[in-house]
Design a protein that fits this description.
Largest sheet: none
Structural class: mainly alpha
Number of strands: 0
Distance between the termini: 92 Å
Strand content: under 5%
Helix content: over 70%
Mean pLDDT: 84
Coiled coil: 95-122
InterPro entries: Desiccation-related_membrane (IPR052928), YtxH (IPR024623)
Low-confidence stretches: none
Number of helices: 2
Protein name: General stress protein
Keywords: Coiled coil
Length: 123
């Protein structure tokens, strides 16, 4: 944020100096020069007020966007957590079933190995 303040201050000072030099170096009467200086001051004041309002609006929008983003991330995090839990609940019964089938297959293989050994010994 310091860069934004420096930029704003630079634009403001540059505008004032430029307007002052321009007004002071032009050949005009005192009354006309005072009138121009007043007009330039009014324009500068209006521009400064507009920049300030736009800056405040931008700050409010950023604050609101940050709050909405945080809420969305919280909701998304909760949705992901629920999805993972649902997936776990869906997979667990199948996982147990697969483990049972694997145990049955292992037992079947052991029985086959024993039968093959018995047949080889009996020959």
């Amino acid at each position: 944020m310091p860069n934004g303040k420096s930029l704003f201050l630079g634009v403001l000072v540059g505008g004032v100096v430029g307007a002052s030099v321009s007004l002071l170096t032009t050949p005009t009467s005192g009354e006309e020069m005072r009138s121009r200086m007043k007009d330039q001051t009014d324009r500068l004041r209006d521009l400064t007020q507009e920049i300030k309002e736009n800056g405040l609006d931008l700050k409010d929008q950023l604050t609101q966007t940050s709050k909405e983003g945080a809420a969305l991330l919280k909701d998304l995090s909760q949705d992901i957590k629920e999805s993972v839990e649902s997936w776990k609940e869906t997979v667990e019964p199948h996982q147990e079933s697969l483990q049972e089938h694997l145990l049955q297959i292992e037992e079947g293989i052991k029985e086959l190995e024993e039968k093959i050994k018995e047949q080889n010994y009996s020959k």
